[in-house]
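Can anyone check this?
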Amino acid sequence: MPTVPDLLFPEPSVRIRHRELSDALTFAFATGGATLGPVLARTSVGDSDFSPDCFARDLFLKDFVHDCLALAIAGEPRELNEGYLHRVLTHPPRDRATVEHRHAVFRELTDPRLRARVEHAWVALDQLRKNLEATPLARVNPIHRRLEILRQFKAIIEYLAHGFEGCTSALRLVHDFASSVLDSSGWADLCVVLDHEDHFARIDLSIRIGYDGQIRALEIVRAEENRENPLHQSQLRRLWDHFIAFLRGHAFREREIIGRLVEQVFDGVEPALLLCFQLMTDCEFYLVGLGLEAESKARALTVCLPELLPSDPAERTVLRRLFNPFLFAEDRPPVPCDLELAGSSLVIVTGPNSGGKTRLLQAVALAQLLGQVGLPVPAERARLVWTDGIFVSLVQEVASDAREGRLGTELLRIRRLFETLSCNSLVILDELCSGTNPSEGEEIFELVVELLEQLAPRAMITTHFLQFAGRLAQELPVAGLTFLQAELDDHFHPTFQFVPGVARTSLAQQTAERLGVTRESLAALVKQRCAEHARRHEPQAR
């Protein structure tokens, strides 16, 4: 078995679905027309303490992968394995050592030459995948196709062996992997077959044939170059000429022998080929992280690798110039803000609609998730307290066929929260209890706050119950309870910054005036409609 080129974990392991990928690869090599992408999407991403059901849907991670993560090489967009990247994001590793392991790779990839090598390797592997998946044209000789695939694989291994020498991070495994392939017997057989095609080599075979004329076993005994070979027929014909005298009189065809030889060579290199595709998915992880960095830089924003702090209530989460990359897909310029959270705290965020509250919560949850996955976070500087889970509930439309209304759906989520919550979780709740009347909603809100105090996670909650929030700030003795409000400028426009305190107004009146929803404007519209109606019906009255 070759050295495993695992770039994601300190202890390298084979994470591909070996049997499933092997079957798909064998079929693709033999006939083409297979699809490797779905199998690669199911590559193991390791054990995790996170429950995807608690955050993936409400954090819109599929949209994030599709709209915000991109891979462009030499200015050309490349297709990503979105299923695999979604699995990586929903399964952060259990230990900080793994994240630091990934950070080391990112730091080494700041060398543009090394980054270019990773990009080249990924492109070559992606092209190999496409060639394997493609259905060959009817006029294409199938053996020619298989030999070309083997030749492409040979070029990739040689590039990996010489392009990653001297690396100090996990990237050194790429060189070690390729070197172990070069020393394998399968590689030697591969070179024999391809050298024959390229240099007129001589190949001696040991063949065992059954009574029915079918090949039972085939083995390369000896190979040597013969540059003086006078035969100038087609490549496959030259190979046949070496065997014809030895094989005359038996009831099998030329294609059977050559095909059997090529299949044997493929079987010998298949373990390495399988690991090449694991390497491809790992490279994709780092390339999308670098792509997020490039996209942010193009918008005058900065990402960073966070400092990861132990799970300690005394530690504080610090985010400087935090921004929300979801706004990239909306072609809206994110406005960075600063945020600081105690290790165990409950932050209630108030402010007017469209003031950035939901976007702030989304950015905080995404920063925590990306940081614990090992990717750059959308902030200029980040200190993150390690957590063993995230619970996210953002306001969404309730499906028309939902068994429960909005309130019922939200109450079920609250129950789910306390079923899964630990003392070391990050809780994100948007517009808690907004689906009911204020009196009932405030009662449930207060209950949630009191119970969260007992577990003492880090929690951020937005609310439009401004009077209630003000009362909590004055009356409810909850440890770690703090309040943030959306900042407004002198014209009562949101700055998308957040400062201590409870908002005094939702700006409903100002918003109504801006949108023309005032008594005067609506009364004028009613008067206009009545006049139009009277004019339409006046002739009939005559």
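Reply from J.R.: I decoded it. The first helix runs from residue 18 to 31.
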